[in-house]
Write a structure and sequence with these properties.
Elements: H1 3-12, H2 19-77, H3 83-117, H4 127-160, H5 169-198, H6 209-230
Helix pairs in contact: 2-3, 2-5, 3-4, 4-5
Length: 240
Amino acid sequence: MSLRHTLKTQSESPHYTPIFSATVRAKTTFLNAQAEALARSLTNMSQRLRKLGLSLHVILSVGWLGAVIAFLALGLASFSRDPSLTKAAYLTMAVVGRSALIPLSVGALVSGIVQSLGTKWGLFRHHWVLVKLVLTVFATAALFVHQATAISDAARLAADATTLALQSGRLHELGVQLLTDAGIATVLLSTVTLIAIYKPWGAVGYVTRSLKVFLAAVTAFIIAFVALHLSGHSPHQHNH
């Protein structure tokens, strides 16, 4: 008699105790419980990673805004009547731009994109995310351009300038530009921060009137900013 026939006969007997079946059910229940526990663990880990990503993005964004405000303070200090303070302000602006503004801007941009792709907001699902992305990209690009031109030029001229040259001429024009740009950057990054907090305008597909007005204002500002720098009225253009 085969083993299969024997097991079948025993299972059909009224005196049969299904030890094997009970063992299988117990193992199945245990494996299901383990799978559910693993799923909960992965979900919690995913939530922790999202929170960690959000925290990193907030730290980098706020740090960027803080560095811009510090740069603004240095811009004001560059107009001091004390030549040593003026020179130190220009030299420190170059250090802040190179060591703080550039890394923080790139970090805020990259972490923001990753955070959007990894959450329900998405990168192209909501107007506030798209507007925030465009403003951040514009601010980062403008920063790279100014770091390579006006900021570097001002630091170089300040390092070689005499006391009289620190208070007048091209260096003074660069100081005005840097102070103005720092003020604009402060307003721009503050706007980006407010957009991230209030999340206005809803999902992509429906354009509200307030969004139209905001986009028109931003577009006009960007066009004016680019036109001013390309027309030769920007101080660093006069050196060429």
